[in-house]
Amino acid sequence: MANPLRETSVPLNTVYGILFAISAGHLINDTAQSVVPALFPILQDTLHLSYFQIGLMTFMLNMTSSVMQPVFGYIADKRPSPFFLPTGMLMSTAGLAGLALAQNYALLLLAVLLIGLGSALFHPEGSRVAYMAAGSRRGLSQSIYQVGGNLGQALFPLFTYYLFVPFGQRAALLFTLLTCLGMAVLFHVSKWYQLRLRQMPPAKKTGEKGKTKNFRLEKKVKAALILLVLFVFARSWYHAGISNFYQFYLIHDYGLTVKEAQVYLLVFMISGVLGTFFGGPLADRFGRKNILAFSMLGAAPFAVLLPYLPLALVIPFFAATGFIIMSSFSVAVVYAQELIPNQVGVASGLIVGLAFGMGAIGSVLLGSLADFTSIRTVMILCSFLPAVGTLALALPDDEAVKQFYAQEK
Length: 409
Known about the structure:
Helix content is 81%, strand content 0%. It has 19 helices and no strands. Helix 5 packs antiparallel against helix 6, helix 12 (288-297) runs antiparallel to helix 15 (329-339) and helix 16 packs antiparallel against helix 17 (375-382). It is globular, with a radius of gyration of 21 Å. The termini are close together. The model is unreliable at 1-11 and 204-217 (pLDDT under 50).
């Protein structure tokens, strides 16, 4: 079967300027999202939020993004929309302003909804830009793109430490200046994207629709996508448990202050950023499936031991766990794109959006469990989640994935 994206995706050379620009946009987009968990300790104190309410805010943010990402991805596959990028950033700017000024829980949820929708607009087209600018280095290009987003998410402990603890909720207004800069960067990227679309030859139409449909309904492809989805479930729930609730575990079980807890959380998040960056090039060298499996098999022993460690060992274990488990983040996106190469927007929206969505559901359930039991119980439960991700061992290897569509030609 002909692959329309392979026929029309130009240029062949990697366009690093655009990759770094879209990565910067991803950084700013996800920084806006990270303001939400960064405010959790402050909002819990000032508005007396429960763990369930904290989990529900995460649910609203991530589920909005996850549900709408595949929808916007589908729209973009049918009709690419370069200016979704700055439009999404504009919505996030409005959400940040609302988050800074909200004085009740309903307004907080509305602000979080706007940030989630802005992110949903950004991500599918951002992944498409990274794909178009990749040339032959897809793993590296996805790593450059995704590392911007993961770095934005990783910075929230610093925001809590340096901004929200000393200055409170209204410090979130400072981030609107950053998102305005992001709109300017993404407008430049959108112009490049628009130009590339004009340079593409028209897609072949004869017989293409029917062949694409058969390809998408191929049983082996569907089975691989289901396994990949389950893999993302496990990784996302674990990451949500650590990023949203481990700071409370450090505060209540180890006796740390809010500021001290952020240092430990920052180690986990920055290690995840490094894992995301190196995971793509490693997958280009050693294979996508191998890195997917390694990210869970390698992280499982560290995750199981983490709840029982003395405080002195938490940081090295956190560093190892964050690096290993997040090495699969960009790899899962590329693997999905290669499973359904004629629908890059849907593949990217499904995997990245699904990661946020499953993290959202996990946050609500874990928050409810923490209210009824304890934070320690939640951390022990989370420690077994990476073991579920060993389902990656059952995924087809890279050569088998290539044959899925090669046989249809």
